[in-house]
Amino acid sequence: MPSLKFLGTGTSHGVPEIACSCDVCTSTNSKNRRLRSCALFQKNGRSLLIDCSKDFREQALVHKIINITDILVTHAHADHVFGLDELRVYNRLHKNRINLYMSPECDNSLRILFPYIYGQPLQKGGGVSLLDNHVVQPGIAFDAAGFKIVPIPVMHGKLPVYGYRIGDLAYITDCSYISEESFKLVRGVKVLVLGALRYREHPTHFNLDQAVEAAQIIGADQTWFVHISHNLDHDKVNSELPDNINLAYDGLTVRF
Ligand SMILES: [Zn+2]
Ligand SMILES: [Zn+2]
Ligand SMILES: [Zn+2]
Q1: How many angstroms is it from 24 CA to the middle of ligand 2?
Q2: Average pLDDT over residues 4-13
Q3: pLDDT by residue (tens digit) across 130-166?
Protein backbone atom coordinates (compact mmCIF):
# COMPACT_ATOMS: atom_id res chain seq x y z
CA MET A 1 0.00 0.00 0.00
CA PRO A 2 1.45 3.43 -0.90
CA SER A 3 2.27 5.75 1.98
CA LEU A 4 2.96 9.44 2.41
CA LYS A 5 5.25 10.73 5.13
CA PHE A 6 5.06 14.41 6.07
CA LEU A 7 8.67 15.57 6.40
CA GLY A 8 7.62 19.14 7.11
CA THR A 9 4.26 20.86 7.58
CA GLY A 10 5.30 24.47 8.22
CA THR A 11 4.93 27.66 6.25
CA SER A 12 7.94 29.43 4.71
CA HIS A 13 9.15 30.78 8.09
CA GLY A 14 8.91 27.42 9.80
CA VAL A 15 7.52 27.12 13.34
CA PRO A 16 8.84 28.36 15.70
CA GLU A 17 9.55 31.55 13.78
CA ILE A 18 12.86 33.25 14.41
CA ALA A 19 12.60 35.77 17.28
CA CYS A 20 8.94 35.03 18.08
CA SER A 21 7.69 34.36 21.58
CA CYS A 22 4.02 33.66 20.81
CA ASP A 23 2.21 30.73 22.45
CA VAL A 24 2.68 28.39 19.50
CA CYS A 25 6.36 29.23 18.97
CA THR A 26 7.07 28.61 22.67
CA SER A 27 4.77 25.57 22.94
CA THR A 28 6.16 22.32 24.36
CA ASN A 29 3.88 20.27 22.06
CA SER A 30 6.17 18.73 19.43
CA LYS A 31 3.31 18.92 16.91
CA ASN A 32 3.70 22.70 17.02
CA ARG A 33 7.24 22.37 15.67
CA ARG A 34 7.03 22.54 11.89
CA LEU A 35 9.85 22.30 9.38
CA ARG A 36 9.27 23.67 5.89
CA SER A 37 6.69 21.70 3.84
CA CYS A 38 7.93 18.64 1.98
CA ALA A 39 6.72 15.01 1.82
CA LEU A 40 7.88 11.53 0.83
CA PHE A 41 5.77 8.95 -1.04
CA GLN A 42 6.78 5.30 -0.78
CA LYS A 43 5.51 2.22 -2.62
CA ASN A 44 7.08 -1.18 -3.31
CA GLY A 45 10.44 0.00 -2.04
CA ARG A 46 10.47 3.06 -4.29
CA SER A 47 10.36 6.67 -3.13
CA LEU A 48 9.17 9.92 -4.59
CA LEU A 49 9.81 13.26 -2.91
CA ILE A 50 7.43 16.19 -3.27
CA ASP A 51 9.36 19.45 -3.01
CA CYS A 52 12.83 19.65 -1.51
CA SER A 53 12.50 22.07 1.36
CA LYS A 54 15.02 24.41 2.89
CA ASP A 55 15.05 21.97 5.82
CA PHE A 56 15.71 18.88 3.67
CA ARG A 57 19.06 18.13 5.29
CA GLU A 58 17.48 17.81 8.73
CA GLN A 59 14.50 15.90 7.30
CA ALA A 60 16.77 13.41 5.49
CA LEU A 61 18.81 12.85 8.66
CA VAL A 62 15.80 12.39 10.96
CA HIS A 63 13.99 10.02 8.58
CA LYS A 64 17.15 8.27 7.32
CA ILE A 65 16.44 8.95 3.65
CA ILE A 66 19.27 7.16 1.88
CA ASN A 67 18.38 7.85 -1.72
CA ILE A 68 16.18 10.12 -3.83
CA THR A 69 15.77 9.56 -7.56
CA ASP A 70 12.62 11.52 -8.45
CA ILE A 71 11.05 14.74 -7.16
CA LEU A 72 7.74 16.45 -7.90
CA VAL A 73 8.23 20.20 -7.57
CA THR A 74 5.16 22.34 -6.82
CA HIS A 75 6.81 25.73 -7.43
CA ALA A 76 10.16 27.47 -7.08
CA HIS A 77 9.70 29.45 -3.85
CA ALA A 78 12.68 29.19 -1.53
CA ASP A 79 10.94 27.13 1.16
CA HIS A 80 10.14 24.40 -1.41
CA VAL A 81 13.39 24.20 -3.40
CA PHE A 82 16.35 25.45 -1.37
CA GLY A 83 17.11 21.88 -0.29
CA LEU A 84 18.06 20.96 -3.87
CA ASP A 85 21.69 21.69 -3.02
CA GLU A 86 21.63 18.87 -0.45
CA LEU A 87 21.02 16.27 -3.17
CA ARG A 88 24.69 16.30 -4.23
CA VAL A 89 25.32 13.61 -1.69
CA TYR A 90 22.88 11.20 -3.40
CA ASN A 91 24.45 11.89 -6.80
CA ARG A 92 27.83 10.99 -5.32
CA LEU A 93 26.67 7.91 -3.37
CA HIS A 94 24.47 6.38 -6.06
CA LYS A 95 26.21 7.75 -9.17
CA ASN A 96 22.93 8.82 -10.71
CA ARG A 97 21.25 12.04 -11.75
CA ILE A 98 17.95 13.05 -10.13
CA ASN A 99 14.72 13.63 -12.08
CA LEU A 100 12.63 16.69 -11.25
CA TYR A 101 9.07 17.14 -12.59
CA MET A 102 7.50 20.60 -12.75
CA SER A 103 5.54 23.28 -14.62
CA PRO A 104 7.17 25.42 -17.36
CA GLU A 105 7.15 28.44 -14.98
CA CYS A 106 8.93 26.45 -12.30
CA ASP A 107 11.55 25.22 -14.78
CA ASN A 108 12.31 28.84 -15.79
CA SER A 109 12.57 29.98 -12.17
CA LEU A 110 14.88 27.13 -11.10
CA ARG A 111 17.30 27.97 -13.91
CA ILE A 112 17.43 31.58 -12.64
CA LEU A 113 17.76 30.56 -8.97
CA PHE A 114 20.47 27.96 -9.55
CA PRO A 115 22.70 29.08 -12.47
CA TYR A 116 25.55 26.95 -11.09
CA ILE A 117 23.37 23.80 -11.33
CA TYR A 118 21.69 24.39 -14.68
CA GLY A 119 24.41 26.39 -16.46
CA GLN A 120 28.15 26.58 -16.21
CA PRO A 121 29.55 26.02 -12.70
CA LEU A 122 30.96 29.31 -11.40
CA GLN A 123 34.25 27.70 -10.55
CA LYS A 124 35.73 24.27 -10.77
CA GLY A 125 36.12 22.15 -7.67
CA GLY A 126 32.81 22.43 -5.81
CA GLY A 127 30.29 19.65 -6.46
CA VAL A 128 26.80 20.66 -7.55
CA SER A 129 23.56 18.67 -7.60
CA LEU A 130 23.05 16.80 -10.89
CA LEU A 131 19.40 17.41 -11.75
CA ASP A 132 17.34 16.74 -14.88
CA ASN A 133 14.25 18.93 -15.19
CA HIS A 134 11.18 17.43 -16.89
CA VAL A 135 8.38 19.83 -17.73
CA VAL A 136 4.99 18.16 -17.30
CA GLN A 137 1.60 19.43 -18.47
CA PRO A 138 -1.50 20.20 -16.41
CA GLY A 139 -3.95 17.32 -16.30
CA ILE A 140 -1.70 15.00 -18.36
CA ALA A 141 -0.66 11.85 -16.48
CA PHE A 142 2.98 10.74 -16.37
CA ASP A 143 5.01 8.07 -14.57
CA ALA A 144 7.78 8.69 -12.04
CA ALA A 145 9.44 6.18 -9.70
CA GLY A 146 6.64 3.69 -10.39
CA PHE A 147 3.88 6.15 -9.47
CA LYS A 148 1.25 7.44 -11.92
CA ILE A 149 0.94 11.18 -11.40
CA VAL A 150 -1.35 13.92 -12.67
CA PRO A 151 -0.31 17.60 -12.30
CA ILE A 152 -3.12 19.74 -10.86
CA PRO A 153 -2.80 23.42 -11.87
CA VAL A 154 -3.81 25.86 -9.10
CA MET A 155 -3.09 29.52 -8.33
CA HIS A 156 -0.81 30.72 -5.52
CA GLY A 157 -1.74 34.44 -5.59
CA LYS A 158 -0.85 35.39 -9.19
CA LEU A 159 1.61 32.52 -9.60
CA PRO A 160 0.47 29.37 -11.41
CA VAL A 161 1.73 26.35 -9.42
CA TYR A 162 1.12 22.62 -9.43
CA GLY A 163 -0.47 20.26 -6.98
CA TYR A 164 -0.18 16.58 -7.82
CA ARG A 165 -2.58 13.66 -7.79
CA ILE A 166 -0.96 10.31 -7.05
CA GLY A 167 -3.59 7.59 -7.29
CA ASP A 168 -6.16 8.24 -4.59
CA LEU A 169 -4.21 11.05 -2.95
CA ALA A 170 -3.92 14.72 -3.96
CA TYR A 171 -1.20 17.01 -2.58
CA ILE A 172 -1.84 20.75 -3.01
CA THR A 173 0.32 22.99 -0.83
CA ASP A 174 0.64 26.73 -1.57
CA CYS A 175 -2.72 27.64 -3.06
CA SER A 176 -5.28 30.45 -2.98
CA TYR A 177 -7.55 29.39 -5.87
CA ILE A 178 -8.65 26.10 -7.45
CA SER A 179 -10.50 26.24 -10.79
CA GLU A 180 -13.50 24.08 -11.70
CA GLU A 181 -11.27 22.08 -14.07
CA SER A 182 -8.78 21.39 -11.30
CA PHE A 183 -11.52 20.39 -8.85
CA LYS A 184 -12.52 17.80 -11.47
CA LEU A 185 -8.94 16.48 -11.64
CA VAL A 186 -8.98 15.68 -7.91
CA ARG A 187 -12.50 14.29 -7.83
CA GLY A 188 -12.75 10.98 -5.96
CA VAL A 189 -9.48 11.12 -4.01
CA LYS A 190 -9.55 9.36 -0.65
CA VAL A 191 -6.83 11.49 0.93
CA LEU A 192 -6.33 15.21 0.37
CA VAL A 193 -3.32 17.22 1.52
CA LEU A 194 -4.02 20.96 1.33
CA GLY A 195 -2.30 24.17 2.45
CA ALA A 196 -4.01 26.12 5.29
CA LEU A 197 -1.92 29.02 6.54
CA ARG A 198 -3.69 30.81 9.40
CA TYR A 199 -7.04 32.19 10.60
CA ARG A 200 -6.88 35.53 8.75
CA GLU A 201 -7.10 35.76 4.96
CA HIS A 202 -3.86 36.00 2.99
CA PRO A 203 -3.27 37.12 -0.61
CA THR A 204 -1.49 33.94 -1.74
CA HIS A 205 -2.63 31.14 0.60
CA PHE A 206 -5.94 29.66 1.72
CA ASN A 207 -6.74 30.57 5.29
CA LEU A 208 -8.36 27.93 7.49
CA ASP A 209 -11.97 28.70 6.42
CA GLN A 210 -11.10 28.72 2.72
CA ALA A 211 -9.15 25.47 3.04
CA VAL A 212 -12.08 23.80 4.86
CA GLU A 213 -14.43 25.01 2.10
CA ALA A 214 -12.19 23.61 -0.67
CA ALA A 215 -11.71 20.35 1.26
CA GLN A 216 -15.46 19.93 1.61
CA ILE A 217 -15.97 20.49 -2.14
CA ILE A 218 -13.33 17.84 -2.89
CA GLY A 219 -14.87 15.56 -0.27
CA ALA A 220 -11.96 13.22 0.46
CA ASP A 221 -12.41 10.64 3.23
CA GLN A 222 -9.58 12.39 5.09
CA THR A 223 -7.99 15.81 4.60
CA TRP A 224 -4.66 16.85 6.12
CA PHE A 225 -3.67 20.53 6.26
CA VAL A 226 -0.04 21.58 5.74
CA HIS A 227 2.02 24.78 5.21
CA ILE A 228 0.84 25.93 8.63
CA SER A 229 1.98 29.15 10.33
CA HIS A 230 2.59 29.89 14.01
CA ASN A 231 -0.91 31.30 14.08
CA LEU A 232 -2.41 27.80 14.42
CA ASP A 233 -2.01 25.71 17.59
CA HIS A 234 -2.15 22.01 16.69
CA ASP A 235 -4.51 20.72 19.38
CA LYS A 236 -6.75 23.78 19.52
CA VAL A 237 -7.32 23.93 15.75
CA ASN A 238 -7.83 20.17 15.45
CA SER A 239 -10.52 20.31 18.13
CA GLU A 240 -12.36 22.97 16.09
CA LEU A 241 -12.11 21.25 12.67
CA PRO A 242 -14.61 18.73 11.23
CA ASP A 243 -13.81 15.10 12.15
CA ASN A 244 -12.23 14.14 8.81
CA ILE A 245 -10.13 17.31 8.44
CA ASN A 246 -7.01 17.71 10.58
CA LEU A 247 -3.75 19.59 10.77
CA ALA A 248 -0.91 17.28 9.74
CA TYR A 249 2.32 17.26 11.73
CA ASP A 250 5.96 16.53 11.00
CA GLY A 251 6.66 12.80 10.91
CA LEU A 252 3.03 11.70 10.36
CA THR A 253 2.67 8.82 7.88
CA VAL A 254 -0.63 8.13 6.10
CA ARG A 255 -1.55 5.24 3.79
CA PHE A 256 -3.74 5.54 0.75
ZN1 LIG B 1 5.57 27.74 0.58
ZN1 LIG C 1 5.24 32.69 16.89
ZN1 LIG D 1 5.00 29.57 -2.28
Answers
A1: 6
A2: 98
A3: 999 999 999 999 999 999 999 999 999 999 999 999 9
Instruction: Spell out the SS3 assignment of 125-153.
Output: CCCCCCEEEEECCCCCCEEECCEEEEEEE
- Whole-number Å distance between alpha carbons of 136 and 239: 39
Report the pLDDT value the prediction gives residue 164, as an integer from 0 to 100: 98
Distance 156 CA to ligand 3 centre (A): 7
Domains and CATH numbers, the chain: 3-255 (3.60.15.10)
| Direct distance between the N- and C-terminal alpha carbons of the chain, in angstroms, rounded to an integer | 7
Query: Residue 188 — left, alpha, or beta (φ > 0 → left; ψ -120 to 50 → alpha)?
Result: left
**DSSP symbols for 68-102:** --EEE-----HHHHTTGGGGHHHHHHH---EEEEE
Q: Which residues surround ligand 2, an ion (CB under 5 A)?
A: 17, 20, 22, 25, 230
How many angstroms is it from 144 CA to the middle of ligand 3? 23
**Ligand 1 centroid to residue 95 C-alpha, Å:** 30
Per-chain mean pLDDT for the chain? 96
Beta bridge partners of residue 245, listed in sequence order? 223
